[in-house]
Amino acid sequence: MTASEIDRSERLHSLDALRGAALLLGVVLHAAMSFFPTQIWIVADDQRSVWASGLFFVIHVFRMASFFLIAGLFAHMMLNRRGVGGFIRNRLIRITAPFGVFWTPVMAAIIAVLIWNASLQGLTAADAPPPPTYDWTNIPLTHLWFLWVLMLFYAGFVILRAGFKALDGKGDGARTLDRLTAGLIGPWGPFVLGAPLAVALWFEPNWIAFFGIPTPDHGLIPNVSATVGFGLAFAFGVMLDRRRDLLSRIQAWTPVYLGLAVGAGAAALMLAGGPNPHLAPLTDPTIKACAAAAFGVATYAAMFAAVGLALRFASGRSAVRRYLADASYWIYIVHLPLVMAAQVLVQDWSLPWFVKLAVVVAGVLAVSVASYELLIRHSFMGRWLNGRRVPWRQPRQPTLAPAE
What we know:
Distance between the termini: 42 Å
Helix content: 55-70%
Low-confidence stretches: 1-7
Largest sheet: none
Mean pLDDT: 90
Number of domains: 1
Number of strands: 0
Strand content: under 5%
């Protein structure tokens, strides 16, 4: 058995942990938004800090690119194992169905929190602006947008793979892609991958640079920058699954990737106006071009650094990491209205912002983990969302009687 085959036989604990961490960090990211020095969130706390916006920026740079890289890698692995039919069936159950089932109650809960917060501020229905008219171009996908984008990427992956296999009868194209994947592992990789994203960001109308890749949370057609930025990460994950041996090279380059991420990220932050968010679009074409280039490099350098750090520090088996990775899907689905409700509760407390942030995050995680344990993990919902249902009690291993 080759080294590559050995790698494929092992569960990628490190990337599973990184996937879970990316989802769980969404709780921290959204919780920090009420503490921004400039109000950007419906809940505005009376304690503000540039450190809160800085924390948001650091998480936002690498989180979703890392998630989509792992999604692409696991998608390629699953399609090879289950075939096209099994892959489509699994993704319909695990991705499409949760989006369809949970979008309405999550949206209703968000609206309920908004109404509650408005009533606490002394506002009435007469003070509310007229409701917007929604259609397929602006429907609010909320934080569940990543499920919709995943569905689009999966569909594109299946279609493109089928066409590629039909045209690449001798396998020359596949071998070329494998060499291309290997060639992208190194300090130059973030620059090569970041170039298309930089171009997309530069052409993005009304681009607010602080937020990097614009979140495609409104409308059924993702914006070009998100399609390019996250699509490249997903595609690289697909190719990386063919070359599992390259994971060790990514790990070896981790210090360099981390340095690039810090340098390019700091440049991007300064060009975007600093940690005190500048919420107006960049108008100077030179500054916009430099900011777009910095964000392109920072996004993929941080993505590679996150993968390398996960490989270095989370490659072994861990019951705690496996539990949190399993729970992270459910936690992310339900967390946003809970975060908003917790922000409303603490917004007038006379405590430092970081204490209130810790209270919000800890409270939301406590409620979410409890609901996962009681409602999801041991029920049919666990099989639906995680692919397996864990019994409440593990069966005891039979003991052998001593020989006489």
